[in-house]
Fold each of these.
Amino acid sequence: MDIVTECRNPDPDVKDAFDKAIKLKEENPSESEKILRVCISKGCTDSMVALGNILSTGTDEQKKESFKLFTEAGNAGNIHGLRNSGYALALGIGCSKNKTAAAEWYKRAAEAGHAKAQCNLGVLYSYGNGVSQNDEEAAKWYKMSAENGYSRGQTNYGEYLMYGRGVKKDAAEAAKWFEASGSNRALFHLAELYLAGDGVPQSRDKAIEFLKSSSDGGYAKAMTFLASLIINEDRVYAESLYTKAAEKGNQTAIDALRNLGLPIPCVKKVRN
């Protein structure tokens, strides 16, 4: 969900009031809400989104008002209102969950140039949620998101290029987008490419370097991959990596620990 902290309303008084409301949001939420409502009465769509953000974590009635504010802002041309409407519909925040309607709102934001919405839309096409599954469409929106500088869009587009999904396979181009992204998942894929010498010069040292960076960032797949590469060189470090990955629920790491005769830790975080 987009969090709006800057007002683009041309009225300087509205801008000043908006800034005051944002500063008061934590220490005096009721006063912040009061100020934002005054700004809304003066046609400030950024205030609609800001108030929607605040209400989206409240009671059911507040969440419903939040969704209404997002859609009103979006229909008035506010790009953040467009994306937040899609987000709310995708998760059912203040409204019934509706992936088809979410896709429509995301598309409006994406067509207006919103990089995160472009990636959101790509994900929907990638999995066929709310739209017909279409890898070519997913790749198109991921590319737009990537070109607009969004890290997740860059990683996702890099994956499509890496695997030749929806676009012609191009490992060298994939590596460029992974480098631009720098996300833990992107670093993991860079390691795969360097280890295989696919699209980049083969280098085990660079692969390990990228895997260490990704592992330090908490990416469990990188931990297990790195551990498997260095188990004979640095068993203690490899075992620690398997343990950390297993704590995140990574099944490969759990199986590795079991095969090594080591204790299986309690899962702290399932997602990896």
Note: The mean pLDDT is 96.
Amino acid sequence: MSLWARWRRWREQRQLQRFAIPEPLWHALLASYPFIARRSAADLAELRRLCSLFLARKRFHTSGELQLTDAMALAVAAQACLPVLRLDLALYDGTVGIVLHPGEVLAPREEVDEHGVVHQWDEVLAGEAMPGGPLMLSWEAVQQPDDPEQPVFNVVVHEFVHLLDLRHGGDANGLPEISDPALRQRWLAELPLAWDRFADRVAHREPSCIDPYGSAALDEFFAVAAEALFVAPQELRAEDPPLYALLAAYFRQDPAGA
């Protein structure tokens, strides 16, 4: 083992010890988020390990009168670590700061159309991921309970999947970094087809476990489909088996079978 590898291993062990998650805090998390508790014992053990490393490497901030607690930080960490459970936590290294707001945020937007006219408006956000910048989350949205009668909504998974999409250096486009050439070609061929199938269901007002917001753009479809994969995997697999299989191949997880 090289000196660098030994140093990294020593650093990781220090972080795991310093940010070890107490049993009561971990069990409270599982009680609050049943879709996490349903994972296998092996998955939960790895998730708990990643949560400690995540909490060691990220910096949480709050706005307004919101007071950060250990339970809040762990709730974000656990849901953020689900997408990289079998990948690499280093995929999030480009983002260190996480800002929690009490509720939704009004973000000023500006766009110049093809005629040179400037359009300005305020966009209501429950979360936002920016390349190299802090990731913003509404704590109210993070706590939103699952409703089996509604499409899946999980703002933490959504925004952290956007970070995976942003790693190529440009805008999010629904194509995360995929080192396996065969899987990359499969992704390029199959994800747009799945998006088309989903947009057709939305247009015909057919029920779906995927948030209809995903019909707006391919990058948003990737993010909301990932929400469904981790929160309602059986429902996603039943609704669109090829999409489920594609996402499972990329994330190297089979939540419906776990």
Note: The longest strand covers residues 105-112.
